[in-house]
Design a protein that fits this description.
With about 80 residues, the protein is an all-alpha fold. Helix content is about 70%, strand content about 0%. This is Spore coat protein.
Length: about 80
Amino acid sequence: MQSTNMQPLTGKELEYIVDSISNEELLLKQCAATAASIQQPAIQQACLQLARTHEHHLNVLSNALQQHQQLAPMQPQQ
């Protein structure tokens, strides 16, 4: 998708993305911490896979913000 076809994100959409980034960061940390404390290899691997999934989600959300950054208005809307 080309950036010329994108519309600026609304304030509400930005809030959702920021909240989602925070949630993904928390889930990533929790999965990594759980994997480090688990003794059973199968469960540890499942936790590590979940951590990678949350890391991917975090990257997708961050990239979405970066792609829309140039469309953002320079001055806050009133």
